[in-house]
Amino acid sequence: MLSIGRGDQSALPSFDQDAWVLQSRANERSLQEVLTEIDVVRASTLALLHSLDDARLMRTGTASGKPVSARALAWIIGGHFTHHFALTRDRYLTGHAAV
What we know:
With about 100 residues, the chain is mainly alpha-helical. The protein has five helices and two strands.
């Protein structure tokens, strides 16, 4: 959203999310650390979103080989946050791994 919203036309590469998860060390961290990280990332994402006007949100670029707008990425990020919040709730607060 940052790159596309600010007009960078560089194609954004895909990445292996499973490799990133292993590097997060989430299982070695306290619940408070994980919740703080989620809160800070969400707050910074919202600050970025609010800094982009309608014209910048409609800018398009390429991510993972597909055309996408900054606005679409805002929605995707929102859904991704909901997904991670549910995982955190299920794994840390209820003690059950999410399916």
